[in-house]
Amino acid sequence: MTQHRQHTVIDSPYGPLTLVADDGVLCGLYMENQRHRPAEDTFGTRDERPFAEAEAQLEAYFAGELTEFTLPLRLHGTPFQRRVWEHLRTIPYGETRTYGRLATALGNPQASRAVGLANGRNPIGIIVPCHRVVGTDGSLTGYGGGLARKQRLLDFESGKALF
């Protein structure tokens, strides 16, 4: 079975965001110049129709009115990556977790490096909040969208900054 892929580009406080869907289900949210961003030709046809709810929830999030996304998602990755990404969705708005704490929660305290690698490959930024993961000492560590964006997201969620 082949999937029908569509995409659109929306404005955000971080610049343009590319939303990608498989058969109408969100499978990607990518920032400009994002590390591990797939090639543009994999995004499918340009079509805004499948993204109305995603756009509405992102707009509410950036307005400070939404703290938890309720969109159906199609996460493409290995079984381990999908487990990490699903666990990211349980980190409450405005809070952070360390890679080690995530590894322990996933049942393998020694897997913090693997958790970090999976976190870096998250295909649905912001909605799957990989920006909420920090180093053991609370420091900002890698973020596909860049550390400045990660800091802005964390500041926004903690109430230190508004868009």
Compute the number of helices.
5
Low-confidence parts:
none
Q: Compute the gyration radius: what is it?
A: 15 Å
Provide the residue-averaged pLDDT: 89
β-sheet strand percentage: 15-25%
Q: What's the total count of β strands? A: 6
Reading the helices and strands in chain order gives EEEEHHEHHEH
User: Overall 3D geometry?
Assistant: globular
Plain-language structure description:
The model has no long low-confidence stretch (mean pLDDT 89). A hairpin with a 6-residue loop joins strand 1 and strand 2. It is built from five helices and six strands; from the N terminus they run ββββααβααβα. It is α/β, with parallel strands linked by helices. Strands 3-2-1-4 form a four-stranded mixed sheet, with no helix packed on it. The chain has a two-stranded parallel sheet with strand order 5-6. The longest helix is centred in the middle third of the chain and has 11 residues, at 52-62. 29% of the residues lie in helices and 15% in strands. Helix 3 (99-105) packs across helix 4.
